Thioredoxin reductase
Amino acid sequence: MSSEIEKVKVLIIGSGPAGYTAAIYASRAGLNPLLFTGAQPGGQLTITTDVENYPGYPEGIMGPEMMEDFRKQAERFGTQVKYGMVTKVDFSSKPHKVIVDDQKEIHADTIIISTGASAKWLGIESEERLNGKGVSACAVCDGFFFRGQDVAIVGAGDTACEEASYLANICNKVYMLVRKDEMRASQIMQNRVLKNPKIEVMWNTETEEILGQDEVEGVRVFNNKSGEKREIKISGFFVAIGHEPNTSIFKDSITMDENGYILTKPGSTKTNIEGVFACGDAQDHVYRQAVTAAGTGCMAALDAERYLAAQE
Ligand SMILES: Cc1cc2nc3c(=O)[nH]c(=O)nc-3n(C[C@H](O)[C@H](O)[C@H](O)COP(=O)(O)OP(=O)(O)OC[C@H]3O[C@@H](n4cnc5c(N)ncnc54)[C@H](O)[C@@H]3O)c2cc1C
């Protein structure tokens, strides 16, 4: 463990839209924030191609390029951006203590958690190969690219039903692949799907392979009861089997819901720990968009600034 302890007013954990937006606001407020990027500098948007729904880019922009813009804007006002992974936290006393890469200790008056979430995937080779080339974990983000076309979606929860209905509004046909002979989703969400003439629910159905070389052209599925295989022509393949918030290091330090999403006080980014704020997908399992993450990042910086002002 390195002996030198760095002290900061604002420490931001994570470099997605939430973290960088918090950094822009905190640095412009003269708080000299320190931001650790984590293992994925730029966050989830660095693994996508076109982003067409972020305001201010009328022609759309590539995800990695957009996140470079976010970083540059945060640095322009004095944010220190460092590559590093927060590996441990201690919020039991003030200032709050954070360990980075199991080595460096930082003491911070306020902490902004913006560690995001990761989509769960099926784990098959073709899914990884065609990721971003027709395979997506976000219907709201990518559904538009497949308007008027046939797509498939995997999942059986409320989110899967919601995304299937969303896709049915813009696509020609939606095959919903459900592993069991029933869904986890609430009855009301199931009814919405089952009544929609554009959605065909395929029960007891699992994905063997997503077909296509450079883009999705189809999917080979099998019925796990009968063993029967079937190839379906589609151009988009959506995975909606859940997300995992990147919050395990805060497990014993902060109040979360049963799925690991950090709980914030309604209308704010305050957590149950004074001086610790949470924003972006780490505390939002509902909207999960870059613009909402950025919005709550802004809120977190303003909440931190007001907290610091009240301490003085
Ligand atoms: C393939 C794909 C396409 C998408 N397309 C769109 C789109 O077109 N439009 C849209 O609005 N949204 C899109 N989204 C959703 C959008 O990317 C997310 O809603 C948004 O990135 C969430 O921002 P965030 O800042 O909360 O977290 P993230 O972007 O998830 O960033 C989390 C950050 O935290 C860091 N981190 C995690 N753990 C630690 C740690 N222990 N220490 C330090 N750092 C840590 C990571 O390295 C990362 O930098 C897409 C998502 C995916 C996966």
